[in-house]
Each structure stands twice: as structure tokens, then as C-alpha cells.
Polyamine ABC transporter substrate-binding protein (Aphanothece hegewaldii CCALA 016), 386 residues
Amino acid sequence: MLTRRSFLLGSGTLTLFALNSGCNPTTSSLRVSLLQGSIPPQLIQQFRQKIAQDNKIVIKPEAQLKDILTLLQKWQKSVNKPADSSEWQMPLINSGKSPVDDLVTLGDAWLEIAISEKLIQPLSLKQLSGWKNLPPSFAEIVQRDTKGKVSLTGQIWGAPYRWGTTLIAYRQDKFKTLGWEPQDWSDLWRPELKGRISMVDQPREIIGLTLKKMGYSYNTTNLDNIPQLSSELKSLQQQVKYYSSNHYLQPLILGDTWLAVGWSNDILSSLSNNRNLKAIVPLSGTSLWADLWVKPAMVNRDDTSVIEQWIDFCWQTQPAYLISLFTKGISPVILTQSSEKLPKELQENSLLIVNKSILEKSEFILPLAAELAQKYQDLWQEMRLS
């Protein structure tokens, strides 16, 4: 799932720098590096109207999340790293040529790396009204120990503001000749689709959907107790024509494959431009991803109120609607509201407003212990060589 964050978004260039025209960063400025397309410009305009005139919000869009991770690593190199310790410590900041941003976008799949490498620091969010409105699964996914593992007693390391799913996309014209349409992961094994599937090149996604097809969790730990898993993966391998985490949709659009498995923000963008494509959320449940606000480890400002205001603002009802309507993702706050109160465009979009029974069977992909992660990798290599 990591390279979903590296996919170059094709939703058009948003010149967010225009929102900062005439704004010189000051000590009271809020500096944010965000994933391009993950926050609508209207929301930034509204926030600027709500904060004091002497505060400025400086937005820097990044086309790929891996660029933001590179920024975090670059900033980390410019500071004195703390001594090794089981407890997280604040690095001491050195003078640098480029200012460090107060907040950046990061994906939940990268949270373990960012924490373990001390690239980010904990956030104080429990006093915010928006935090109290988050669904439990979204609050839990950002509570981690100092090694980046999910822990209900851990600190809060991120603020989820947008999420999505892994979907099945397919060519309607090709499936008309078959006389059926995909509904669930099990359809990927049907003989008619041999050599006609493209997928993200991600072991946790592919092994996870196979486990889901068999009635298990994406985060199954007792792989040795599922002897049929290996044969199921080998059978799926015969169905797949193409793996790529960046270009899995191109073969589908060109008709070289008939079905693709990938991430909702990519697929929703392609549906807008290709009427022949259709997508579904698998009935047995799917994997979830989330984009988060995280605070770089080297940020050290006395007044953090504007940071907390921005995070809480993104969790309010109207900003949540804007995020959900205009970013190919959905705000987690939406899940706490009745569907009847949502804008009509959202009510009618089953790829964003996922059926409750399906959502209850869906899950975030969690970090694994090293030994178990190696077992997943070994299964993946065995599958690809079959």
C-alpha cells in the first residue's frame, strides 16, 4: 500500500500558491505541505477568513506523498538526532536555510516508518471537538507506541482528514460478453478472467484480498494455520497479466485487461474520464487507507493554537463536506452522520459512502512484527514465481 502514496495524481493542477500571494511567512504563520488534490481550495479560503489577520496560512502542494516523506527526512538531517531511547524525544533544531512546515500530509501506511525514524512528533488532539467525533477505527489507527505499532495506550501521531478504499474496477463492454459483473474478491478467480487482470504491486493488498476471499482478515497473523492460502495465491497469479502500483489502470483503459484492483482515489479519477469503466466495493469487505496531518519532529513553536485550529477545522461539518465532494476521498467525520443529512451527491455515490455492512467488514492494513512481515514477503515471492 505504500506506493499508493507515490502515485502522481491526475486530477489537474491546483495552483494553491495563488492563495498565498502577498503572504510572507512569519512566526505566526501556519505552514502546511499537503498532497495536491487532497484539500479543496475553497476550504483554505474559508479557514483564512476565520483566523486573525496577523496569522497567515502558507500552503505548499506536493504532487506525490513520497516527496513529502523526502522533506521530512531532509529536515531530520538538519537537526541533532536525540540519543537512542525507548521513549520518544524531541530533536533539537538547528538553523537551516529552508523553514520547516508545521504540518504535512502523510499516509497511514507510512506512519510506522515516520515514528520509528523520529521524523514526526505526537499531537495533542483529545481536547478538540473534532477528535471526539472521529469513528473509533480512525482514532485507533493513529494511536501508536514509539516504534510505530498500533497501541490503544499509545500517543496520537496523526489526524485523519481523508480516507478511501481498495476497489475493483472493470470494463463494462468486456463484461457484457461474459453476462455477469464482478461483485466480490472471489470473482477474480473465475476462469473467464485468466490473464485479464491488472493489480497494484503490493503484497499486503494482494495477500490480504485473498485472505478476505477465504473469510480471514487482512491482518491475519496465523498464516501457518491456513495451508490452502499458498494454492489460492498461485491460482490468482495465473489470472494476473500485469502488476504495477503506478500504472495498473492504463491496461484497463486500453482494454489490455478487463479488470483492475487498485485504490479508490486513482479509480474515481479514471471513472470521471472513461465512461466505459465501472467500479465496485467488494461485498466481503476491503482495505482502507487514510491521509493524515502529521507534525514534523523538528517543529518547536510556543503557540500551537493555529495548528490545532486547522486540524479541528478540517473535522467540522462543512469542511468535511468539501473534502468529500471535491477530493476523490471522504472525510472520516461523514461516517458519524446519518446519510439523510449528507449532500445528495454523496448520498448517491456508493463508492464513497460505502454500504454500512461492507464497511463493518473492511479494515486498515496494520504494521506487522518483523518475523510475520517476512512470512508475508515469502508468500509473495512464492506466488510471483509460480
